[in-house]
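User: Could you check the structure of this?
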Amino acid sequence: MRPALLLLLAALPVLATDPESCRPCHVELVERYLATPMGRSFFLPSADEEIGDFSGSSYYHEASDRHYEMFRRGETLLVRRYRLDEQGRRTDILERPVTHVMGSGERARSYLFQSSQGRLYELPVSWYSQEQAWAMAPGYDRANQPGFTRQVNHKCMFCHNGYPDVAPERSRPGWDADVIFPKQLPLGIDCDRCHGDGAEHARSGRPEAIVNPARLSPERSLEVCMQCHLESTTFRLPETLRRFGRSFYSYRPGEPLGDSIVHFDHAPGTGHDDKFEIVSAAYRLLQSRCFRQSEAMTCLDCHNPHDRPEPSARAARYRARCLDCHALTLAAEHAAQDDCVACHMPLRRTEDVVHVAMTDHKIQRLPPPGDLLAPRREKTEAEQVYRGPVVQLYPPPGEDSDALAGVYLALAQVKERADLAEGLPRLEQLLAAGAAAAPEPWFELAEKLAETGRAAEAEKAYRRAVEIDPSFPQAWNNLGNLLADGGRLQEALQAYDQAIAVAPLDPAFHGNRGLALLDAGRPAEALEAFDAAVRANPADAEAQARQGAALLSMGRLAEAEGALRTALALEPSHRQARHNLALLEQALRQPQTPR
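Assistant: Sure, the predicted structure tokens are below.
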């Protein structure tokens, strides 16, 4: 049986009141809002709008030895990647059209491609407006960058757009690895994200039928913004966990944010106290003395979400807000025209998106030392790893009434292995005592038990997860992997079949089933599974590589070559595909022995 919360969530309405639905009564508000960064956060490319230099510009990424061209073909924007061989000829050519644009362009824009099946992929290069230049998208400036394979998931969509029309059971943890979005997506953060479901308000016109954040308590009002802007880090901690049974799109303005999301942070004194990242406005504000000493400070004190002041008017506007509390100080120490923000909330270059500078919302008497705009390099994978204590950030631990608070903290400790020594035994003890009848903690327990070599206990935890929720596809798949690694191939195949029954378009599930069939000595059936993986997602390099390897082993060289070359076009650094292609080319060069 599924947890009761999952069944309750299925009744939640999909938030879908776009600004145009509000225009008949709120013309001026809508016009102003659509010009703000939130109103332009996600949109379709247009030949009439300049959204980056697509005039045939180029960018070379030295670390991965890949060239990129950004150009137009008719009204279509495209990104093309290629490499040069020893003779200077173009190889590994792949191009994708830009189907969606993410980001207002205030500081940067990223570009997405949606496949015919609905998957959204981030393209490898971004346009950085502050520098007026192309560079690698965040997380791509490395030799082993993900190319055209990085999928947009529910966590990305939650904060970068309005809520898509995805069933709650398909938008919860466990469904965030291979997400298929509907073709019709919201275009920008819509009115519902801050005002709740506006359908009844639109029908009746009753003010009480919609949420007005300005009329909420300061805490609830602040949380409307914090649903996206309270991000302690984009690096591997984790910084948030969804409450068990809550989907990614289940938060509703006016409800306590902690009822749907729990936020975590590095423990104080671990070298992360002054970290500054791109989505840190609320996180940094909460550290400010101004905020801590105020009992009613919210984002709305300084920001009107429906409006974006002209640059020439911003200093005076924000200074007026400071004067509400600091009039005597300002009159005594500062000139009337001084810019408070420039000194006390300076621009700083962010640690995670290194081509962008943001306003530091930690209001400080003196700015941090050093050159705050000095160039940065991206952190390596190793530098992003954190090993140390994790603390709950929000809701504050003393205010969290959830009886499972200890389970969430243990999960935060183990999910990215930050504090496995303390978190794993704590999670085991809590679950053994019956602390949580939800699938997610059992799944994470199984993952870490498997990683630490405790296969028998991991199997029990996986089976407990799917007992609680038989529609948990990743748990079925990973149980299959565990059984296959233990040589229990028939049981593994049964687990993969369960995963595929729930999520038939996930290529990894078909591919893993194919590998088990190969180990079982059933190559023809294995090829059928690899073919199914390719059909499930033709843009999956691993699926193409496995299909090519199977065809090569059967001597079907022409078909194998096609699959292997497709895999390398999708991902030039796929070592096994390149190795198998070399074997194939060697076989083709061998003289054929007459029969």
